[in-house]
Amino acid sequence: MMRTSNGTELATRFAWYGPHQVWLQANSQACHLPVDPGAWAACPSQADLSRQALAGAKLAGARLAVAIAWEVDLRGADLQEADLWKADLTLAFLSGADLRGANLRGADFRGADLRGVDFRGANLREVNFGSADLRGADFRGAELAEANLAGANLAGAELAGTCSP
Questions:
Q1: Assessment of whether the complete model's pTM goes beyond 0.85
Q2: Does domain 39-159 have CATH number 3.40.50.2000?
Q3: Average pLDDT over residues 45-70
Q4: Is 115 exposed, middle or buried (0-12, 13-18, 19+ CB in 10 A)?
């Protein structure tokens, strides 16, 4: 673990590279990514973010398709317009995260804590929400075709205007 200047702890796969850059290594490849604001650059597929402490991270526009992120802590993170196509977020902690307009097609959120997540306008086709906690999540305008909601807790979730042809 390492500690940033603002006290945030990051695993050794991450290192700060200047005031607005972070270095990420995944699958023996590396890329420099803007931390804040804006989108992350394209990165190696299958980045392993499992068990990383990234609560409150500014990851709008991140390109993390096919990422492996078991038990990652992204509580309150900004993931607007992020590309998490087929990402594995099993048992992840994303309560209060902003995923508006994100591409989550085929992502796996089995058993994840998704309380109060903002999914408005997101592509959630073929997403696996099996046994996920979706209490208070906002799905307005989201595409939910072929999504698996078996065993998910949807108490208080906003489903008006969702698309599921």
A1: no
A2: no
A3: 85
A4: buried
